[in-house]
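Q: Predict the bound structure with adenosine-5'-diphosphate.
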Amino acid sequence: MDNQADGLREVMKEQRRSKRPLRIIGITSGKGGVGKTNVAANLGVIAAKQGMRVLIIDGDMGLANVEILYGIRPRHHLGHLLQGDVSARDVLATTTSGVKVLPAGNGLQQLTRLDDAQRLRLVSALEELEDDFDVVLLDSGAGIGDNVLFFVGAAQEALLVVSPEPTSLTDAYATIKVLCQDAGVRYFDVVVNQAGNETQARDIFQKLTAVAGRFLDAKVRWLGWVPRDENVHRAVMAQRPLVELFPSSPATRALNGVADALFNEPPPAHLAGGLKFLWSRLLRDSNAA
Ligand SMILES: Nc1ncnc2c1ncn2[C@@H]1O[C@H](COP(=O)(O)OP(=O)(O)O)[C@@H](O)[C@H]1O
Ligand SMILES: [Mg+2]
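A: Predicted complex:
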């Protein structure tokens, strides 16, 4: 009986896996403050509401990080996992939206200098988590510093958030270039955030594709745009996800559209892998560094 139940569970797990390969999406931007964390946190909630099992890895040490936006106070972070203090599942924080959060804490910095025991702990922890999720969103700090490059570069897709500020565009282009040339990322989903209107947003995207397409082997895809909306700030202050607190606000409606484009029309090809692949790339790169 037990064997049969185990067998059935395995089959179902396998079916789930074949229907929905785990997607690992690195949220990135050229400069800080464009809205990465807000986009990540809210896309996570929307995906969870659609029945996806979502993990957000919070690599942002900034002020308004994912934990703040969800109003949670996680007790553990990746650093504790690496030290062997907690198990993979215990390191995850639960939110009322159903999204799980893995705070990176100081663990992200440690990834570049793990000893063998820590490496083993990490790989087996991630194996354990692999089947628990459909989508992993990586929210990192700004820019293309070493850890961010490792982090997003190891994901299969990058979601690039740009804002209408002129420097945002040049920084975004530099980010595409580095991620593409140095880290081998090929797919870039672009969200124009804090735009005044659709024409402005499309214009920014057009400029980005023009430069990216001319020089690089990168596929840049329009995911959508999110208007500048005061409710975003209000939700941050309330420490509640915007899409829950203001379900009919302009930004929420736009984010729903972005989520549809992102989750219902995945990019044409996927790299094999999943979480284990992500971390093995991280570790390989950190060894080589
Ligand atoms: N669509 C938007 N409309 C208005 N304000 C926004 C919007 N998106 C983000 N913000 C504001 O911009 C600031 C930075 O957002 P955040 O998500 O923390 O950026 P990042 O993670 O890229 O540094 C926050 O204070 C947030 O309230
Ligand atoms: Mg952030």
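A: The radius of gyration is 18 Å.
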